[in-house]
Structure formats: C-alpha cells, structure tokens
Amino acid sequence: MLAAAIVLDGLVRPRPQTVFAPVGRSLAGLWLLVWMMAALIGLFLAISGNALVSGALAVALLALLALVSNAKHAMLGEPLLFSDLALIGAIFRHPQFYLSAIKVWQRICAGAIAGLLLVIFSLLFVPYLWPHLAGGVLLVGGLAMLAISVRIAPFNALAREPDAYADVRRHGLFPSLLLYWLRWRQSRDPAPCAPVERRQLPAVPETPELVIIVQCESFADPVELFTNPGLALPALSEAKRKAWQWGQLDVYGFGAYTMRTEYGVLFGRSEAALGFRRYDPFLTALGETSYAMPMRLRDAGWRSLFVHPHDMRFYNRDRLMPASGFDVLVGEDRFAPVSPGAGRYVADTAVAAQIASLARDATERTLIYAVTIENHGPWAPEASAEKPDLVQSYLRLVRNSDAMLASLLDEMAALRRPAMLVFFGDHRPSIPGATAPGEALHTPYVMMRVDAAGRIVPGENRRVDLTPAELHHAVLDALLGDAVFREKATNRAA
C-alpha cells in the first residue's frame, strides 16, 4: 500500500525532474506521506475492520486526489490546494463550476471505482471488535507521529513561504496539502486598518459622487487571447482611449478563483501580506473587514451596494459582504429567472439594467460593486455551429460584456453627476484546446470618469498596470485623496 501511495504521489503534476519520478520527492515529504497513509488506513480499518479493504480505500482516496489535482493542473496551471477542500460542499451545490475540469471518462471511472469500493466494503465488513480497535490505535499513532514531526526539524522549516507549485514538486502533493493547511492555520488576522493620512482632493475634476465597479466574469481581450486583431472589442478599445486610467490587471490566477481578484479589489491587501491566506482569502476575510473598501468609505459618508445575480452563499458572500460594510445586497432574487435557451446564467444586460436602476435611485454618495456571471465557463458549443467551437461561444459572451461596458458609460453620462466607472476582468478564461495557463495572466481594466454635465473626463489617460490590491488603492485615492508616502510604504503592503 505504501508503494502504491508513493507511486501515486509521484504521478502528480508538477512531477519531480528525475527519471523515476517518486524518487525525486524529498525524504521529508516521503516521511510525512508514510504517516499520512498510516493514519488513513487506520481510519478505514477502525470503520471496516478489514485490513485489505482499508488499504484499498486509502489508495483509492489518494488516487482520486491525484486525478483531481492533475486535472486542475492541466486546466488552471496549479495543483490541488488545501483551500480547494473547503469547496467540497459547493461542488455538490454548483457542479457545473467544477466538473468540467474532469473528463467524462475520468468521471465514469471515478464513479465506478467508488461504487465498487462501497460494494466491497459492505461485503467484507468485519463485525469483530479487535480489528476496529487496531485501526483506532493505528489512526491515533499516525496522527501523533504527524503532530510530532511537523513541530521538529527539519519538518518545521518546510514550506515556510507560499509556493505551491515548487513545494508539490519538491515534497509531493499529499505532504504539501498537510503543510499548507498547517501554515494557513498558523496565520493571524492583521491589526485593524489604521486611519490613513491623505492629501486634499483637487478642485478639478469634480470628486465622484457615484462609483460603479464591475468585476466582469472571464473578461479578457480576445486580441491578446487569440492573437487576432480582428477580434478587438469596440467598447473596450474606445474606453482605453478615453479612460482616466487604464492598463493590465495582474490577477492572481488563471481560469478560476474569482475570489482572489475580488478580495484584492475590495480589501486591498497584497498576496505578500496574505501569505498562505492568498489561495482563498475569503476563508479568513471576516477577520479583515476593517480593510474593506465599503468600510473605509463609510466614515466619509458613502453608502455601498453589492450586486451579484447568483447564490450569495457561494464564497460565503451572504455573511462576508454585510460584515465588510455593504449596506445592501442585490442577489439572484432581484433578477428574473433565465429563460430556456437564453444561457445558463443571468445576462450581463440584466446586470447592467439593475446597476443603472440603482444608480438612478442613489441620492447620496454611493458605491455599487457588481460581480457578473454570464460568461462563466464551461462554455458550450454554439447551437448554430456546424462543428463544436468553444471559442465562438466565449466570443459571443465577451461581446455581451463589452456591450455592458458601453451601456454603463451611456447610463452614467445620462445621470449628469460626477461619477466613476471601474470595469475589469476577474481572470482569463480556461477554454480547452484554445487557452492554456502560462505566464500571461492579466486582464484589462479601465477607470472612466464623467463630470456633472455627463462628459467623459479623460485626464492624462494614463496607462498603469496594477494588481487587484493596487486597484483598490487607486479607487480610494480618487475618492478620498492620495495617501501620503509613508502610508503607501506601510499599509499598502498590508
């Protein structure tokens, strides 16, 4: 069983750079794997009382995790992370978000193996007490050895800095899952966000009284994705020419992990400051709400609304957003159900209409933060296409997002009040056979400003490439005044 575990771990990508992959994992990783396997076998033995079944179940679980990790690596460019296990419940509530990463034959095999193991388990269950007790002893012993090991050298020095790709290659998937979970558990909430000293806002242009921030699902420039100038998005191109500021948004993942970008823009804390919390910052964000943009605007008299046409329980938004200072949550109950044949998710046009309505009704300084969903993968082939072409499906939807950008600019101008629109993509799309994870992760962003007459104020039309956390501070600087240098040198890293 141990040999099977070592082989399975050696097959996980990224693999060691050796001829025989498992040999390339570190001895420390191998040691942890041995005791993880012992504890796992002990758990199943305590339940079943059958040593053979317990070993088979333990190996099967490792095989399942290896399969999922490799599928994720192929699609998103990173291995399975400890934080992914927190999404198990969401997989059952929203399977369309996750199962696309696993091929049909892989799903069939996984289901068949699971069913077979359940049958074997029921047939080979041992009713005698002593094997179950032995399993309990093995479980406790394995956990005890792990608890002792991670507290002493050299294990307590492993994975001190977050680099999942390198650590999986060096120590293996299963030890890395354990080590990263431990490092995450050891992280602490930051001190409450300190007041920021800011320079006085200039008289010109007028300070925005309305801010609309749109986090657009899978919004990326098709010209860059597919190296085809003919695919340029007209509204995005026009917005870049007239923007107050625009550039690349250097997001923190490929093809998924909306919450990483969302957290960065809303909370403004960098990946360096987050440490091991960076992989799913929403898991710990309730302890960091003083950093949230709505909280920082509240003292200046701003009201904040959060718009998302989907289940707010996803990523715990139903609890996190009110705690972060949002006064109103506009969720899926405020949108008409998607009609048959109109796609799987609420259209960007409907979100734009809702934003426009909220903006018209706003009588005080208001922040509207919207998260779209229409262009969420996986993409289905166009019904009218002669042959399957997922790219055409994506292009149709990203053009809808581009039309949303144009519509919001028109609506904002019609309000005749100083306003700002920030529009950006949360991550690039992962389209099988068309896009793949690589060095380029960025999406576009634009910051547009209009005056009280509804005219676009281009300013210097600066191109500034930012991280999501830096975009957070750019928005606050535009609304509250530039932070002084010493604040930028300290809190912006926080």
TrEMBL record:
The chain crosses the membrane at residues 28-46, 51-68, 104-126, 132-150. Keywords: Cell membrane, Membrane, Transmembrane, Transmembrane helix. InterPro entries: Alkaline_phosphatase_core_sf, OpgB/LTA_synthase_biosynth, Sulfatase_N. SUPFAM superfamilies: Alkaline phosphatase-like. It is found in: Cell membrane. It is a multi-pass membrane protein. Pfam families: Sulfatase. This is Capsular biosynthesis protein. One of its GO terms (cellular component) is plasma membrane. Its main location: membrane. CDD domains: LTA_synthase. Residues 211-474 form the Sulfatase N-terminal domain. It comes from Sphingomonas sanxanigenens.
